[in-house]
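hey can u check if this looks right to u? its 377 residues, i copy pasted from the old doc so theres a chance i mangled smth
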Amino acid sequence: MRTVKVAIIGGGVSGLHAAGLLDRQGITDWALLEAKGVLGGRIVSVTAAGTSACADLAIAATKNRVDLGPSWFWPGFQPQLANLVQDLGLDAFAQFETGDMVVEHASNTSPRRMHSNASVPISMRLLGGMQSLIEALSRPLDSARIFTGQTVQRMRRVDGQVNISTLDANGIASTWQANQVLLAMPPRLVASRIDFTPALPEQLSRSWRATGTWMAPHAKYVAIYATPFWRQQGLSGEARSAVGPLGEIHDACIPDGSAALFGFIGVPCRVRQGVSDDVMRARCREQLARLFGPLAAVPQAEFLKDWALDPYTATAADCEEHAHHPHPPAMGPASGPWEGKLLGIGSEWSQQFPGYIAGAVEAATRGVTSLTTHATA
């Protein structure tokens, strides 16, 4: 058994940011346990294939990445995240929105060009994808305290401590003991996948199970091209469709990197489960060709990520719901044996931006502040 002062469950933005905040407050006796083999949580950035680009200059592969998870943040009303991005020295750029959008109302009518207005506040992306945020947050941390491939199965209150039982990909069990636990994962996953002894308060457990996980019902498609041919047609790359399968489409070009379009699949996840990836990709290509012309039918590469099939993101309950940003539940028990031992710091626990990346930063900051205040009280 390994003993630490603080155990952080989850290696996404909230977990990594919490570890950094603990370090800065002099609390270095922590362990971060991540179920996946890599850090990032719902952030996944993949290297775009091909050598042609939005501009003629080549850049490093780590900069030439597209996001299969969240892509945007809004400095105009998310200053805490904006300041973090600046402090980490990351390069941000504005979402391309110059030109007309395309709207597809029905299968028996042709798509129409329409004038579109730029978003207010401006949507921003990170050069290198959101994965660059994960890399920057993890870089200064003690890698010996980060354990990937560790799925938390159970938590037990024993002699004033929390015993955490995990299982790795090879079926090997491990146990950690911590004084306090930061839950850097969605509330619904905590309540659905972790066995607590004694049980969590029933009302709290119900509220956590009822909190939808952002991205869980979503699927995202990305197509990579040699050039941003839609821009040459005076199009922004933005489209809306009532026909599908993509309901919302945007330009995903990378400055001095690859040209790309991405879209959110509007087909409900229960229906998607009956469609193969090859068929879904083919339908997406057909739709992009309808909207942007024949060049869109032949991408150099394409990526499809269905988050509803990710066991570390979605549960069956998420597939039954419409995607929406959740109402944040209580961060932890207000009384009983788990009081002061468990704190939820995943994005869905954010009071300001539940489900957003900015929410992960806000919830982690609030959680660490609460933890350290409780420890010194």
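The chain is about 25% helix and 25% strand.
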